[in-house]
Amino acid sequence: MASASRKTSVGVVFGGRSTEHEVSRNSGRAIMAELDSGKYDVHPILITRSGAWLALPAPDAPEDAGREVLFSGTPNDAPLRYAGSDEPLAIDVYFPIIHGTFGEDGTLQGLFELAETPFVGSGCASSAVTMDKAVAKAVLRGAGLPVLPSLTLFPETWEADRCAVSDEAASKIGYPLFVKPSSSGSSVGVHLVESPDDLQDAVADAFRFDAKVLIEEHAQGRELECSVLEGPALGEFLASPLMEIKTHSGWYDYEAKYEEGRAELIIPAPVEESLAEHARLYARGAFSALGCSGLARVDFFYRERTGELYINEVNTLPGFTQLSGYPRMIQAAGVSYPEMLDRLICCATARHEKLQSREYDRNA
Fold this sequence. Notes:
By secondary structure, the chain is α+β, with helices and mostly antiparallel strands. The chain has 11 helices and 16 strands. The protein has helices spanning 21-34, 107-114, 124-131, 133-142, 155-160, 162-173, 199-206, 254-258, 273-289, 325-332, 337-356; strands spanning 8-15, 40-47, 53-55, 67-71, 80-82, 93-96, 150-153, 177-181, 191-193, 213-217, 222-230, 237-239, 243-247, 263-266, 295-303, 308-315. Helix 2 (107-114) runs antiparallel to helix 3 (124-131).
């Protein structure tokens, strides 16, 4: 840990092997630009598309300027070391901002937990559960929180009887519906299906990105989001003003999320305060039920004609780019971007200290 006499060393881990590699790089650069240079020594750590870990001399440095580092995965003060050397890369706190597979799904968090090193965000179990939309929905239902009707589809079920799956989707879900990989992000592999004729192609594409696919009711409602920020004391949650997403055409797909001008993000959302408070209550409930830590973005559908509010999904490592909703909602709550990063780092340190006090061996 950093002492009072020196800056805290923060390793921002970005990139990764998923389809969201470029989004993660943009998020990482945004974070590194906002970290207070008077408080932190920032170390850019890029995970390449092939899975190599590179310590970069600067956030925008090319890969060939990086120096390869190896992760030991064992408890020690410096789990990262330069390849071919005993020289450690001294990091006090890691800030992983890798979206999607091999970053947001508990795998990276598991490495940090094995190494007993502090890191920002939810732990291994919570990240894995939340990343899997089918499992997360089951947890949220069990906690009494509202989610849309859905079917979980496995390859063997689909291949055994596609007609039966199609009939079940029509009777239990109805068209139009959404088909999505259970564990992807940024709307990769997600399809709006208008009729049974289009279901087969949508399912086939979704299976390209995951071994489990979700068929879900199309809410046909307004899209609202709420950011949750923990701290500065553990267990204290700030739930932000709501944001409404209005796309200029179609639905909130990958292009609408990351191409400027494709969607309008309205903060605060023009809804009744009673609805906003209801959503914030659900957001805090989802954060707790899923065991999240540090931060999360909770997405909702609101059917204005019926007054129904549904949780769509919970994202434990939302985007931090200039177009991303999470930091904008937190800023609307009165917390600046640098202060938000301070809170997340403090929360990571506090959670690590709490975990270190646990006993794992009754004979120790």
